């Protein structure tokens, strides 16, 4: 199936390099006919390869600090000018924890860093939705997505304060989803993705071991960044126009499995037969 987003426009935030889920979503959205604007924080624009992606997709790049409301207003205004009016979809793919980056134990967090985690990784989602609301920057029936993780519901020690950030992100999707749905039939959802080998993901302590564990636990294995991009395309297309205020697991079944035979075998291998 192709052309799911023919004639649609959107804003994709958070693409840093070719390992980013947002990067893959941008490529897939373009492949399906969408015209897009790319955005990231000014520091990420300097550090990443987003210009390469923009050139490839003929997509304008607009820098914006997602923790700054004025920056987000400018992002929407510039995007509407570039794309010819309000947009059909927005992807929030933003997350960072200073405590995780600095290897602070969860039992010894720096609270000013904790607040920064929440501001960057969750409150920015509310800021993006509120700026769009106030500027009327989304079309009737538009779709807004945020990327989450199952640590919002379960304990993953090394994920630290990012777990609370993802829980808040999902709550914002439900709360703002109600208001935006009533106002303009706009859908707001979060996607709880498998552990994915992005630049940010691999910075979490013990990531490789957990990646392998999740892969063994999931009947379908870990969902790749590419398959997540496919799912995001479907979620911003007209095929899913009645789905809103949901946190949807895109994790190969991990979220519904108690234990798998692969993991059981590692703890209790079958005896060798003579």
Features:
274 residues; 7 strands; Rossmann fold; 10 helices; single chain
Helix content: 40-55%
Strand order of the largest sheet: 3-2-1-4-5-6-7
CATH superfamily: NAD(P)-binding Rossmann-like Domain
The count of domains is 1
CA gyration radius, whole angstroms: 19 Å
CATH overall fold name:
Rossmann fold
Q: How many angstroms does the end-to-end distance come to? A: 52 Å
Summarize the structure.
The protein is α/β, with parallel strands linked by helices and 274 residues long.
Structural account:
It contains 10 helices and 7 strands. With 274 residues, it is an alpha/beta fold. The chain has a single domain, classed as 3-Layer(aba) Sandwich (Rossmann fold). A 7-stranded parallel beta sheet has the order 3-2-1-4-5-6-7, with helices on both faces. Strand 1, helix 1 and strand 2 (35-40) form a beta-alpha-beta unit. Helix 1 (21-31) crosses helix 9 (225-236) and helix 4 runs parallel beside helix 6. It is globular and about 65 Å long. It starts with 8 loop residues before the first strand and ends in a 7-residue tail after the last helix. The model has no long low-confidence stretch (mean pLDDT 94).
Furnish the topology, listing elements before pairings.
Layout lengths: L8 E5 L7 H11 L3 E6 L1 H6 L2 H8 L3 E3 L5 H15 L3 E6 L5 H4 L9 H25 L2 E11 L13 H23 L2 E7 L13 H11 L7 H12 L10 E4 L10 H7 L7
Parallel strand pairs: 1-2, 1-4, 2-3, 4-5, 5-6, 6-7
Helix pairs in contact: 1-9, 4-6, 6-7
């Amino acid at each position: 199936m192709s052309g799911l987003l023919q004639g649609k426009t959107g804003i994709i935030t958070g693409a840093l390099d070719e390992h980013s889920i947002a990067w893959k979503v941008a490529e897939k959205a373009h492949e399906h006919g969408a015209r897009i604007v790319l955005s990231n924080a000014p520091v990420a624009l300097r550090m990443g390869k987003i210009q390469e992606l923009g050139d490839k997709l003929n997509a304008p790049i607009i820098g914006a600090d997602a923790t700054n409301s004025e920056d987000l207003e400018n992002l929407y205004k510039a995007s509407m000018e570039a794309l010819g009016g309000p947009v059909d979809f927005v992807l929030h793919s933003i997350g960072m924890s200073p405590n995780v980056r600095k290897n602070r134990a969860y039992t010894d967090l720096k609270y000013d860093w904790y607040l920064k985690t929440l501001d960057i990784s969750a409150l920015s989602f509310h800021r993006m939705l509120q700026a769009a609301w106030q500027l009327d920057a989304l079309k009737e029936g538009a779709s807004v997505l945020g990327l989450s993780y199952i640590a919002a519901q379960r304990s993953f020690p090394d994920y630290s304060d990012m777990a609370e950030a993802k829980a808040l992100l999902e709550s914002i999707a439900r709360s703002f989803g109600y208001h935006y749905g009533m106002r303009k039939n706009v859908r707001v959802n979060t996607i709880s993705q498998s552990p994915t080998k992005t630049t940010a993901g691999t910075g979490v302590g013990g990531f490789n071991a957990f990646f392998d564990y999740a892969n063994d636990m999931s009947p379908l294995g870990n969902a790749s960044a590419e398959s997540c991009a496919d799912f995001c395309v479907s979620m911003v297309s007209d095929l899913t126009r009645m789905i809103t205020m949901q946190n949807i697991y895109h994790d190969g079944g991990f979220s519904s499995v108690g234990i798998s035979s692969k993991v059981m075998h590692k703890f209790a291998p079958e005896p060798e037969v003579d």
